[in-house]
Amino acid sequence: MSESLISPVGRTVTEHSAELAARSEEFRAAGEEYARIRELRKMSPVAAHLRERRYELGMTQQEVATAAGTSHSAISRLESGRHTPSLATLQKIAAVLGEELILCFQSTVDGEVEREFAAVA
């Protein structure tokens, strides 16, 4: 965030965030987790999205794995960006996370990007 953004009480956003972090271990931990997710997004957007969604729901990897009918190690590998699961497994994980898996076919025709979306049934 920009240092020049001023909050209504006259502090920059960075100053306010630092104050919150100093008062709350939970706030600090969340900031650290979102920083790891931002870095992961550079390598694997799918892994980053699934990790972020699981974190927001307050679920453990084991809980997701059990509900999706897969192993804890499979979820761990997926979230680390070291593994790409099958579409069927991704669909199950998305459902556990309260989401729907959508595929996109993309092509460029006469310089225009065309996209066709389809839900995985």
Summarize the structure.
The chain has helices spanning 13-23, 25-43, 45-57, 61-68, 72-80, 87-96, and strands at residues 102-109, 112-119.
Strand ordering within the main sheet: 1-2
Q: Total helix count?
A: 6
Main structural class = alpha+beta
The gross shape turns out to be extended
Mean model confidence by pLDDT: 87
Give me the strand/helix succession. HHHHHHEE
Characterize the main sheet: 2 strands, antiparallel
| CA-atom Rg in angstroms | 19 Å
* Overall strand count: 2
Give a description of the structure.
This protein has 121 residues and is an alpha+beta fold. It contains six helices and two strands, in the order H-H-H-H-H-H-E-E. The chain has a two-stranded antiparallel ribbon. It is extended and about 50 Å long.
Jot down its keywords.
alpha+beta, 2 strands, 6 helices, extended, two-stranded antiparallel ribbon, about 120 residues
